[in-house]
Write a structure and sequence with these properties.
heterodimer, A: about 375 residues, alpha+beta, Butyryl-Coa Dehydrogenase, subunit A, domain 1, Butyryl-CoA Dehydrogenase, subunit A, domain 2, Butyryl-CoA Dehydrogenase, subunit A, domain 3, 4-stranded mixed beta sheet, about 15% strand, B: about 80 residues, mainly alpha
């Protein structure tokens, strides 16, 4: 059966913020609460995203990608995050893996995976967290041993976004000398995917626990350099993931603002519209201010990425920390503005509230971020 | 190229660790400065500043131990070297 991408080529192309906003308003916003309740994103939307060229538009044109700069990619992810954090989360992990293969892959690995990742024919998931290790990557227990010129992988990964649906896993595991990144096709013997249902936020992001039992991998499964630089694959990939989460957090603030502005313009208390009450105005003005501030921090991180500046890594930590905490704060205020209505399914703010909390945890908890930011300040200032 | 590269790389490392006294021969790994974050920053800095791409087989610890070894790496990778 032909896919939507095949039957409608060239339509609904997302190339910038404006086209992303139009796509999101048409295909995501009206259905995001349903995705949240159903606990998954339907295949139809995944196909529409393929048709729109949304999966990895930053990949170089020579690989079939769109060559999109990272500032624009951030704007696109913000718009998707405004519509639905679960969908944006799928984009985030796919972006991370696609970038990692393009950046660190051998010519053979790039040839095999990058065009398919760019088109969205292959969807990817990033497998780092484990039952006993989250932000502390050094605590992972999954491991590989070399055997017959290849590798044998054992371990369990948990909280894997898009784990239920992804075709390709980028798995971080201990080697004899360090931590390595391994490309593991979903259909490899020994891979078992168990859905994790009914989670707090990003409920439609198809999270899974994935077990790897004596999974035999070829020598070409190892992505990037081994040895001391293996950590850079993880650092670089998480940096891009953090950037996407920061953009998505801006999207949550914007969604909270738009929902509250609309509600406050209709709802009255004692004959007065909410929007005319000073305490509500204060909350809305803080949302506007933080949305703009977070957006600027994200744009600066993106600009530094496009320029290849090393300072982008810390800029991204700062952007993610600021945007995610602001998102959690304003999503909470959005529920408050909606009152009891904010606690039900009739308005999107309860979903925003639950999703925003997740942003403070994923791709490095905010506690880890603050430690890193303080450490940088100590190096540079003290 | 390498003399200039050496100084620029030293400036970059010193800017990150202003409290440390580092010269061109010192092993920055032995000094305990390098974690995966700084290693990534070093790679990005070298690629951006000297307009080179460091291939995977050059991403070895010995190439990044000191300003001297990093400058030698830049020399090897620079297309304009004579």
């Amino acid at each position: 059966m032909a896919t939507l991408a095949e039957t409608a080529p060239g339509t609904l192309q997302v190339t910038d913020r404006k086209s992303a906003r139009a796509f999101v308003d048409t295909h995501i916003v009206p259905y995001a609460d349903a995705y949240d309740r159903q606990g998954r994103v339907p295949e139809e939307l995944l196909e529409r995203m393929t048709a729109a060229g949304l999966w990895a538009p930053f990949l170089p044109r020579e690989t079939g990608g769109g060559g999109m700069d990272l500032v624009t990619l951030g704007e696109v992810h913000e718009e998707v995050g405004r519509g639905c954090s679960s969908v944006r989360s799928l984009l985030t992990v796919h972006t991370m893996v696609s970038w990692a293969v393009q950046r660190w892959g051998s010519p053979a690995q790039r040839e095999r995976w990058v065009p398919a990742l760019g088109r969205g024919d292959v969807l990817a998931a990033f497998c780092l967290s484990e039952p006993g290790a989250g932000s502390d990557a050094s605590g992972i227990a999954s491991h590989v041993v070399e055997k017959n010129g290849g590798w044998v992988l054992n371990g369990v990964k948990k909280w894997i976004t898009n784990g239920q649906r992804a075709d390709l896993f980028l798995v971080f595991a201990r080697t004899a000398t360090s931590i390595g990144a391994f490309l593991v096709p979903r259909d490899s013997p020994g891979v078992e995917v168990t859905p994790i249902e009914d989670v707090l936020g990003t409920r439609a992001s198809m999270i899974a626990e994935i077990s790897f039992r004596d999974v035999a991998l070829g020598p070409d499964a190892l992505l990037g350099p081994s040895g001391f630089t293996a950590g850079m694959v993880l650092t670089g990939t998480l940096d891009l993931g953090r950037y996407s989460v920061a953009t998505g957090s801006v999207g949550i603030i914007q969604a909270a603002l738009e929902a509250c502005a609309a509600y406050a313009s209709r709802r009255t208390v004692g004959g007065t519209l909410l929007k005319d009450l000073p305490l509500i105005q204060a909350k809305l003005s803080d949302m506007v201010t933080d949305a703009r501030a977070a957006r600027l921090l994200v744009a600066e991180a993106g600009r530094l990425k496009d320029a290849g500046e090393a300072s982008t890594i810390m800029a991204t930590w700062v952007a993610k920390y600021f945007a995610s905490t602001a998102a959690a704060r304003h999503a909470s205020e959005a529920v408050q503005i909606h009152g009891a209505n904010g606690c039900g399914h009739d308005y999107p703010v309860a979903r925003l509230y639950r999703d925003a909390k997740v942003m403070e945890i994923i791709e490095g908890s905010n506690e880890i971020q603050r430690i890193t930011i303080a450490s940088q300040a100590e190096r540079e200032i003290i | 190229m390498s003399g200039n590269a050496k100084e620029q790389i030293l400036d970059f490392v010193r800017a990150r660790y202003p409290q440390a006294e580092i010269d061109e021969t010192q092993d920055i790994f032995a000094l305990g400065f390098v974690n995966s974050l700084f290693a990534m920053e070093l790679v990005m800095y070298i690629e951006k500043t000297f307009e080179v791409t460091i291939p995977n087989d050059e991403l070895k610890i010995d190439n990044f131990r000191s300003a001297n070894t990093m400058a030698e790496l830049v020399d090897r990778l620079s297309p304009a070297r004579v």
